[in-house]
């Protein structure tokens, strides 16, 4: 393997350089798409606790230890910013979303946005979501080759439209909005990053226009009416403790970002859980037995009682994190755990670096939800051993919402159905977008 230095540390700084292969970005990206876990292990063996790879014509420094990922997420020296990095990756599609803001501006917006995710609102969302989720789950097709990814994606989108928008859209309109979101999300990982017709990039730009027009059209009615329990209405009326509110543009931008942030992440987690529960029927039985001991229509306080689903969810998020990495850019010369990071370098804290690290987890490739039990508590081996929701000031604002949604859907699925995959089936992930199964996870779904 070739060895190149990212940049020589300033003389007398005592900092060490960051090494990488210096191979062209396209080659590095293809390696990542093929097997990111193997790539991380190889780079750790070759370059130690940090490396850099080229991607999209840029150089990304990637810490390969938990201390390094923590240092990026916590950003104690305030030398790293999210907007210049996420802005490069997804800015044209998700501009002015909260993750594309930094420092004081981010704090200001986060305090208002936080109002939409407090305990009272979460309880309200849970009450709203249950009847439609139950109906949605009951409507699933049964038999062989039911594509879990597609079915769950449609279900979580319907849920998002109801809980986030508070609207009962005609199917064709719901599909149009879904497509716009998917196009925006996929555009971020596009290798061609220009508005050339037919490319993922061009589709993403068109998707953004659809979403902006949609939210602007519906905003006046939301503003004018009393607050209802949907996110759109909550954001129109939200007021931070300091009395700040969102402008119309803010509401549109935050709605587009939050819907994106919520949708595929939850779908991927549910699909990953469905996969492992199909591969490990003993865990499916355990989770179902626990669901049967709880009421069909749960309340917020029941959520803590899903101990089996909780462990399965955490293990699924460890093995297949929906958001592969946190993206940042150095605003000035800085360092990560003693390594020199020059101004302008892109930096990524990549969850799988820790999630598959044998120093932090026993037999990390094995599905073993009991590793999260109080007795074993492997997730406490390091503060960042388990980090699917990120960390620091940008830590996922929807993490309790996500866990509530995921457990409620799984609870309903377990009570209605059993599902299985053929013996020896192993899924293959497409890592060129957010990590989804290439075959969309076909299962045999049987009503019980
Ligand atoms: C299992 C599902 C989810 C996962 C794995 C996940 C993961 C993440 C991660 C890793 C970040 C941090 C990115 C960074 O620092 O660069 C993040 C941020 C964020 N997430 Fe989630 N997320 C999930 C679900 C949700 C849901 C359901 C919502 C909303 C309802 C949401 C809203 C957000 C928002 C608004 C941010 C940006 C926060 C900020 O910049 O202050 N997420 N998420």
TrEMBL record:
It comes from the Bacteria. One of its GO terms (molecular function) is oxidoreductase activity, acting on paired donors, with incorporation or reduction of molecular oxygen. GO terms for biological process: sterol metabolic process. The keyword Oxidoreductase applies. Gene3D superfamilies: Cytochrome P450. The keyword rRNA-binding does not apply. Keywords: Heme, Iron, Metal-binding, Monooxygenase, Oxidoreductase. Its cofactor is heme. This is Cytochrome P450.
């Amino acid at each position: 393997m070739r060895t190149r230095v990212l940049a020589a540390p300033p003389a007398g700084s005592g900092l060490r350089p960051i090494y990488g292969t210096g191979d062209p970005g396209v080659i590095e990206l293809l390696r990542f798409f093929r097997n990111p876990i193997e790539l991380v292990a190889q780079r750790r063996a070759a370059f130690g606790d940090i490396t850099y790879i080229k991607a999209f014509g840029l150089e990304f420094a990637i810490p390969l230890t938990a201390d390094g990922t923590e240092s990026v997420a916590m950003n104690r020296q305030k030398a790293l910013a999210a907007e210049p990095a996420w802005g490069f990756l997804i800015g044209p599609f998700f501009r002015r979303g909260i993750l594309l803001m930094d420092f004081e501006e981010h704090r200001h917006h986060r305090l208002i946005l936080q109002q939409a995710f407090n305990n009272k609102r979460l309880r309200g969302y849970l009450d709203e979501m249950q009847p439609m989720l139950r109906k949605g789950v009951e409507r699933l097709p049964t038999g062989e080759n039911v594509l879990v990814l597609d079915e769950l994606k449609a279900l979580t989108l319907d849920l998002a439209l109801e809980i986030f928008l508070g609207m009962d859209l005609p199917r064709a309109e719901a599909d149009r909005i879904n497509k716009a979101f998917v196009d925006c999300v996929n555009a971020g990982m596009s290798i061609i990053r220009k508005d050339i017709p037919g490319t993922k990039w061009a589709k993403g730009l068109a998707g953004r226009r659809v979403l902006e027009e949609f939210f602007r059209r519906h905003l006046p009615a939301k503003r004018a009416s009393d607050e209802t329990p949907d996110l759109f209405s909550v954001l129109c009326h939200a007021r931070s403790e300091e009395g700040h509110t969102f402008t119309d543009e803010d509401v549109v931008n935050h709605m587009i970002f939050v819907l994106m942030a919520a949708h595929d992440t939850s779908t991927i987690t549910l699909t990953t859980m469905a996969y492992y529960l199909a591969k490990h029927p003993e865990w499916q039985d355990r989770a179902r037995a626990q669901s049967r001991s709880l009421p069909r229509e749960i309340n917020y306080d029941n959520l803590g009682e899903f101990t089996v689903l909780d462990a399965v969810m955490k293990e699924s998020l460890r093995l297949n994190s929906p958001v592969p990495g946190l993206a940042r850019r150095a605003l000035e010369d800085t360092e990560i755990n003693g390594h020199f990071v020059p101004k302008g370098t892109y930096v990524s804290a990549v969850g799988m670096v820790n999630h598959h690290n044998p120093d932090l987890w026993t037999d990390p490739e094995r599905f073993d939800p009991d590793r999260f039990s109080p007795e074993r508590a492997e997730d406490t081996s390091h503060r960042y051993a388990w980090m699917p929701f990120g960390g620091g000031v940008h830590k996922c604002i929807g993490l309790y919402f996500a866990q509530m949604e995921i457990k409620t859907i799984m609870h309903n699925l377990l009570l209605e159905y059993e599902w299985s995959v053929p013996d020896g089936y192993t899924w293959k992930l497409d890592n060129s977008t957010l990590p989804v199964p290439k075959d969309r996870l076909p299962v045999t779904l049987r009503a019980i």
